[in-house]
Structures are given as structure tokens and as C-alpha cells.
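Data card: per-record layout.
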Amino acid sequence: MTVSSAATLRGGMPEVRPEYIREPEPFTAMPVARALPWPQRLWQQGWLRKAVILLVLAVLWEVVARVQDNDLLLPSFVATAHAFLADMANGELPGKALASLSVLLRGYAAGVALAFVLTTLAVSSRFGRDLLDTLTAMFNPLPAIALLPLALLWFGLGSKSLIFVLIHAVLWPLALNTYAGFRGVPQTLRMAGRNYGLRGVRYVVLILVPAALPAILSGLKIGWAFAWRTLIAAELVFGASSGQGGLGWFIFQNRNELYTDRVFAGLATVILIGLLMEGLVFTTLERLTVRRWGMQH
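The structure for this 297-residue chain is written out next.
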């Protein structure tokens, strides 16, 4: 008798194997991992690690300033903190910061809108792609602050000159990042969008933008950093020309009057605003989008 015939019964039906039930091991028999100690759990918090880094930098600053022992060249952290709190209390620093941010947001929004238009044209037609490549090759290496003399000549003393240089600072890095993200979208998603009849702006908004969102967010952060530092540098010239301005003018004026502690207080305000934008705006936006969707770790 062969194996195949032995495994079958009459009528050619296969032999039914006897059923059995496997009892699982009790859950209590498995080792249970102990919870981490509270210092380790606390150290897992990102805000605590960043706060420790800032505290270490402040301590190093204080030590170097005391060794230097020259408040005109390098005021101590304590003296800078006193100047910062005093200028915050009298409203000068908040007023200067609001003046800078109001100009920055207008220039930043205009730069983002123009970058979206250019990248939409670039992915829609060959002429748009050539236009974006040519313009970015021409103007991206050009420092935005170098256009300030022309902006003052064209638009005069006012916020329009600052907005012009801010658009230049935001437009090109954001357009390059966005276009690189669009080019990295898988062909499968592109074909799916075309099969649904999506064309033009709807194709870009519904298919390309969600798929390229990590690159777009990176471009937004780079554009923000470029715009923020360009604005402070431009306000140094703009403030010296018109006698008014935001944080850049505050720093320039106190430097002329040799109030070095207030100069450092203005610089600290610039840094704090950058940290708040990074921690509250961009990090929250990434957590709610690309990290939540599994596109970034």
C-alpha cells in the first residue's frame, strides 16, 4: 500500500485528522517588564532635555563673562537677564518684537504664495519647470540683504522695502524644497490622481502636496529662518535710515549707545522668538501631520 492510498479512506476522501485543543500558558507565568524609574521617565521628555541644554549654556555664559570681567564686551547672563526683564516691563521689547513680526508675517505669507505658484507651474508644464530652474539658479545665490539698497530706491523708506527682501529670502529655498518634494512623489500616486481626473491645481493640492508634505515643511522652516535673520539684518540698515524699526533697530541703537546688556537682551529676544516658532508652530504642525501619518519619525 502506498502512502497516498494509506492517507485516504473509501471513496477517495482524505483521512480526517483528530482534533485537539492546545491550552495556552497562563499569562501570569510570563515575565512582566518593570516600569522605568521616574528619573528615566522624566528624562524621556524632550522639553526637559532642551531646558537642560539651555541651562548649561547660560552657566557657561556666566562663567566666561566673569572670567572676562568686562561688561562692555561681554555682559554676564545675570546682567542681560535684568536688562531683558526691564525692557519687557517697560514695553519696549514687546513693541519692537511686534513691529518686526508684523512685517515678517506679511513678507513670509507673500513668499509662500509665490513659491506655491511657481512650483505649480513647474509641475504642470515644461515651460514652468524651465522658468523655475532659471529663476532659482539666478536669484537663489543672491543674498536677500544685498537687494535692500534697490528696495529702498524703488519703494522708499517703509515696510514695503522690507517685505520685498523678505519675499526674496523665503521664495527660492521654499520653491526648491517644494519642487524636490513634488518630484519625489511615487509614480503610483501620480497615476491614481490622473485616473480620478485630477488636473492643474486640484492635482497639486490633493495629490502632490500631501505626498510631499515633509519636504514642504522643511522648506517652510528654512524659509522662516532665512526671513527672520534677513529681517533683523535689514532693520539695522532700515532703522539707521529712518530712525524707527523693530528688533534690529533696537539692537543697533543700543550698540551705538554702548548698552551692551540691552544689545544682548535684543539678541536673546530674537533667539527666543525663533525657539518658540520652532517648538510651538513647526513641531506641532509636524506632529499633527507627517508624524501622525507615519511619513516621518
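Known properties of this structure: Residues 47-60+75-288 form a domain with the MetI-like fold fold (CATH 1.10.3720.10). The chain has one domain: 47-60+75-288.

See the next section for split statistics.
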